[in-house]
Here is the input.
Amino acid sequence: MASKGNFSTQTFLNIVKEAIRGGVTTVQLREKELSAKEFYDLALSLKRLCDEKKIPLIINDRLDIALAIDAYGVHLGQDDLPLKEARKILSKKKIIGLSTKTKEQIDEAYKNGAYYVGCGAIYKSHTKDSSVIGLDSFKNLCKHIKNEKYKLKTVAIGGINEDKIKDFKDIQTDALAFSSAIMQSKNPYKTCIKIKKELQTFIKTPIN
Here is the structure.
């Protein structure tokens, strides 16, 4: 998950570029403070970079921005436009992810056409204002998806850094989401290389 924060646009894009060079497979743009115009301008610049590098770009919350820049997909929260309605608007070629914390929310996500579910927060996070569900709950949610034979990919979100990757080795998840661990790194490229090396020991397929 990428957020511009206090960075200049160019610095932000450079960080993402280095993260992609280091092995990031999907970028999600998450901006809570920008105006619609600012969000659009930033998303458009990031889309150009992701297209150049052949990396999928997912827009957080804002279906209108995702449509405007022809993003790869959109990620919705429980308080955003209902997934069922978003699917009516968004091309079937685009993916929709949904933030979830419970089995019931996952059941709804599958029923209404989600491609993946982001589960968390796993740990307390400085960038994601969300209650913590913890590793055990996340493990149970992953088991629920497998037991129900849902064709849903899972992404662990919230407070994950390179030191916590080992916590997920016995959990059947498809991906881990990183935000501050990369965006605040002094060397995003090296950080992503390290993360990728750790992930390859137990995660074989990226969410895209």
